[in-house]
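Entry:
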Amino acid sequence: MSLLTTLNEDMKTAMKAKDKETLTVIRMLKASLQNEQIKTGKELSEDEELTILAREMKQRRDSLAEFKNADREDLVEKTQAEIVIVEKYLPKQLSETEIKAIVTEAIATVEASSMKDFGKVMGAVMPKTKGIADGNVVNRIVKESLS
């Protein structure tokens, strides 16, 4: 079952339950997927859908950080609720231990030895963690491993 179909079913459920927050987030996700579909002019693959969901999650995490810095508790709570809803549609995220194992393997593969090889390592790691790990966490672990 495609992600759009799942979103449509969940949207009906949210409408029946009169759950406005969930409905709003699902509509935003659905709009992002449909916009991308229109832009590319073809059906989206699972990988492309995952990329769009990851982008939506990143936007919300970035917003959350900004709202916390600005002491906007009202928006922090709203954004945290949105993140919980978006997480339902993303695959299970990797733990830090799993990410470290992937990073260690990538460092050995590209024969990285210093921070100069950061780009090579990230280039090897990101395709393996796409959609299943937060890029900021991966970035931090790669930096820790190389320094």
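Residues 40 and 85 are 26 Å apart (CA to CA).
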